[in-house]
Write a structure and sequence with these properties.
Elements: E1 26-27, E2 44-48, E3 57-62, E4 70-74, E5 79-83, E6 88-91, E7 106-112, E8 115-123, E9 135-139, E10 147-150, E11 168-170, E12 178-181, E13 187-190, E14 198-199, E15 214-220, E16 223-228, E17 238-241, E18 248-249, E19 261-268, E20 273-279, E21 290-296, E22 302-304, E23 312-313, E24 319-320, E25 323-329, E26 337-342, E27 351-354, E28 362-363, E29 369-370, E30 394-396, E31 404-407, E32 412-415, E33 420-423, E34 433-437, E35 446-450, E36 454-458, E37 478-484, E38 487-495, E39 502-505, E40 513-514, E41 526-531, E42 538-543, E43 549-555, E44 563-565, E45 575-576, E46 584-588, E47 593-597, E48 605-606, E49 618-622, E50 630-634, E51 638-642, E52 650-652, E53 657-664, E54 674-680, E55 685-690, E56 698-699, E57 714-716, E58 724-727, E59 733-738
Parallel strand pairs: 29-33
Antiparallel strand pairs: 1-10, 2-59, 3-4, 4-5, 5-6, 7-8, 8-9, 9-10, 11-12, 12-13, 13-14, 15-16, 16-17, 17-18, 19-20, 20-21, 21-22, 23-24, 25-26, 26-27, 27-28, 30-31, 31-32, 32-33, 34-35, 35-36, 37-38, 38-39, 39-40, 41-42, 42-43, 43-44, 45-46, 46-47, 47-48, 49-50, 50-51, 51-52, 53-54, 54-55, ...
Length: 739
């Protein structure tokens, strides 16, 4: 689904400064070293609340030597291994912790055909100055355990060009030699299986401001090829080496805008042809032209084999612009291959298949039959799903010529008969989760607000929500989600959408209706929303994606009319008192001031002042069932509590950093709800639970379940003591229960 809103997948601008190319010593063991917790941890069982994909699959790699073994990479959600016995994906990078959040984006992966258990990952989500450097993980047991080497360069798995590649390659002449293409620092080489890295001598690429650098690495026999993404269309963009020491531009290569950026390449050993897909931009967005070419590696002859040239007109009169993305060859049938279009919005992307080396093509979209019953959200609020978009990951099973998979911006589709397609996504969860509600009553124990896929009602935690994305209207990214504490059947949501930006539900989130009206600000700056305890008042805050803050608006008629609340602190997230319907609260992070309303949100007045301000993350949370019991979570300043409705706050001494806080059912015999926190009690950032009002904490996650950055939101289950739900940025909703 293409939406107008920005999402957490949007590529951040800027370029990283060039760094010294020095390999650092490897770190044995897990990729994030454990530190002692403040208290003995309680064993928990962790699982993903099933949605089914929901993110951009940037690469899929079948192992050429092992039937049923495959790997997948994502832009922000780590890497996975396919388990053929369970027909599902196994996450491989959940051990990466808080300080390593930038490593959850997988830039590239590689396997060694000669050593089937070896796996390599190149990690690094962003290459901007504020991001940490990349790293390479290497495994001898298919990703069960890892050894890590930190790089002195940055990678960009969630930037433009993240669907190209692979940029990582095991040299077919020597399994100890690895090659890694970077965006800003040319080509790197390792001669000790990735333990240390240095600049590859003789490589001619010279990075430009576009910062794509090496887009692909592929072996054609003993010759290595490297795609270069910083060409202007007339300068060389494909290089090769036959000895691993000297590189040259490939003669006779295609030129022009349709062949500006090499996207992916695949070598057909049976015919000695190298197939290369091209586009005029790295993608996944921004492509409007492209082509497909093959190179006969025996005589150096190039032949264009583009299935359909971009630039035509659809039946509806729209320009049919697109580039080409994935390419894969059939290891069992020489001359058989598949390629995909990319960024083809008007006529919709497709996968083309050829059995004669690209002389003729068949569009598999034309006969495709889809079954998305396992992940109903893929209908996007329509009658049936479309073939997909952002198709750059494309793979063909080397042991089954009719088994083809392709990734999209939300899922991984597969077929075993070239006609019937279904998601092959089980176990792979990549949602960026923004809001969580665990209702106190009703069928669902969880409602989630997410980036790109709006709001989902989870009637089961082990199956993708049967209703799919909340509709009427459909949102892209959710910006607000709230439930009336004393009337839990009433739920409201806000988000980025083309047909309205706010909606309400009177059945706990199962069905929805749009607000009858909305402020004009809602279209371009939909922000968080709150409803008071009895659901009679709505308070909607407006914040543009660029950070500009606008006045909040209030409605007392379920969204039929709205009025501006001039005394409300602009941009602050509203919090409703769970026991008193006349009270709302807001924390002004700019001034460190708590504001409160005692007239149902008509006006706000300052209460406590001098609280922490200017920090990068704050969260104000009201304890369930209690009037005026507020908790202020402050990233670098810890935790504060007020029991008088924000008139005064006291510092909680049991932790020094608190990123997000939530409540759940009290322990047996306890007189206060269980508190769940992502924070730090000593040196490690972890997930904690307190059953005594934050006097003491026990760590409940472990070193193998950390999921990178998990500071968005957390909540306990009000009906099951010990169960907690955690929002991750790329690994969906993780929920845990005492083992």
């Amino acid at each position: 689904m293409r939406t107008s809103q920005p999402s957490r997948r949007a590529v951040l601008a800027g370029t990283a400064a060039a760094a010294a190319l020095t390999g650092l010593p490897s770190l044995a063991g897990p990729a994030s070293a454990a530190e002692p917790a403040a208290a003995a941890g309680q064993a928990y069982r962790w699982r993903s609340a099933v949605m089914g994909g929901t993110g951009f699959i940037t690469g899929v790699l079948f192992h050429p030597s092992v039937r049923g073994l495959a790997y997948a990479r994502t832009d922000i959600g780590g890497a996975y291994r396919w388990d053929d016995r369970t027909a599902g994906w196994v996450p491989l990078t959940d051990h990466l912790g808080w300080d390593d959040w930038n490593l959850l984006g997988v830039e590239a992966m590689a396997v060694d055909p000669a050593y089937p258990n070896r796996l390599y990952l190149a990690l690094g989500t962003y290459s901007q100055s504020w991001a940490t450097n990349g790293a390479v993980l290497r495994s001898d047991d298919r990703g069960a355990t890892w050894t890590r080497t930190d790089l002195s360069v940055k990678l960009g798995a969630n930037e433009d060009g993240r669907g190209t590649g692979e940029r990582l390659l095991v040299d077919p002449r020597d399994s100890n030699v690895l090659w890694l293409g970077t965006r800003h620092d040319g080509l790197l080489k390792s001669t000790d299986r990735g333990a240390t890295w240095a600049a590859a001598s003789g490589f001619p690429g010279s990075p430009s401001a576009t910062g794509q650098g090496v887009t692909l690495l592929v072996a054609a026999g003993r010759t290595l090829y490297a795609g270069w993404g910083d060409s202007d269309g007339s300068t060389p963009n494909l290089f090769r080496t036959v000895d691993g020491r000297t590189w040259e531009a490939v003669p006779g290569r295609p030129s022009g805008t349709a062949a500006k950026v090499p996207i992916r390449a695949a070598y057909d050993r049976g015919t000695s042809h190298l197939y290369v897909t091209y586009a005029n931009a790295p993608g996944p967005n921004g492509q409007s032209d492209g082509s497909v070419h093959k190179l006969c590696t025996l005589n150096g002859k190039w032949t264009e084999v583009t299935p359909v040239k971009p630039g035509g007109t659809t039946a509806e009169g729209s320009a049919d612009t697109f580039g080409y993305g994935g390419v894969a060859v059939d290891a069992r049938r020489p001359g058989t291959l598949v390629v995909s279009t990319n960024n083809r919005w008007a006529a919709v992307d497709t996968v083309f298949r050829s059995t004669d080396g690209g002389r003729t093509w068949t569009s598999l979209k034309d006969t495709a039959v889809f079954d998305v019953s396992e992940t109903p959200y893929l209908k996007w609020g329509q009658d049936k799903p479309k073939f997909g978009w952002w198709i750059q990951a494309l793979a063909l099973d080397p042991y089954d010529s009719r088994h083809i998979v392709y990734g999209t911006g939300a899922t991984l589709y597969g077929t075993r008969d070239l006609k019937n397609w279904a998601p092959q996504i089980r176990g792979l969860e990549e949602a960026s989760v923004r809001q969580l509600i665990s209702p106190p009553v009703g069928e669902a124990h969880l409602i989630s607000g997410n980036g790109d896929i709006g709001v989902m009602y989870h009637e089961s935690l082990t199956a993708s929500p049967s209703r799919g994305m909340a509709s009427n209207p459909v949102f892209g990214s959710a910006t607000g989600l709230a439930q009336a504490a004393a009337k839990p059947a009433y739920v409201v949501r806000t988000g980025w959408g083309d047909n309205g930006n706010g909606a309400y539900s009177n059945d706990g989130g199962q069905t929805w209706a749009p607000f009858k009206a909305q402020p004009s600000l809602a279209k371009d700056a939909p922000g968080p929303i709150a409803t008071n305890a009895d659901g009679s008042v709505l308070l909607w805050v407006f914040v543009h994606w660029d950070g500009t803050k606008y006045p909040a608006h209030r409605s007392a008629d379920n969204g039929a009319t709205w009025s501006e609340v001039s005394s409300y602190p602009k941009g602050a997230t509203p919090v409703a008192d769970p026991a008193d319907p006349t009270r709302f609260y807001a924390y002004d992070t700019d001034t460190g001031t708590l504001y409160a309303s005692t007239d149902s949100g008509r006006s706000f007045a300052a209460r406590a002042t001098g609280l922490p301000s200017g920090d990068t993350q704050f969260e104000l949370v009201a304890a369930p069932g209690r009037a005026g019991d507020l908790w202020l979570s402050v990233k670098w300043n810890g935790l504060y509590r007020s029991t008088d409705g924000g008139v005064s706050f006291s510092k909680v001494d049991s932790c020094w950093a608190s990123y997000t806080l939530g409540f759940g059912k009290a322990a047996d015999g306890a007189d206060y709800p269980a508190i769940y926190m992502v924070g730090s009690t000593e040196t490690i950032t972890a997930v904690y639970r307190s059953d005594d009002g934050a006097k003491t904490w026990v760590r409940i996650n472990d070193d193998q379940h950390q999921w990178g950055w998990i500071g968005e939101t957390i909540t306990g289950d009000p009906r099951i003591h010990g169960r907690v739900y955690i929002a991750t940025n790329g690994r969906g909703v993780q929920y845990g229960e005492p083992a």
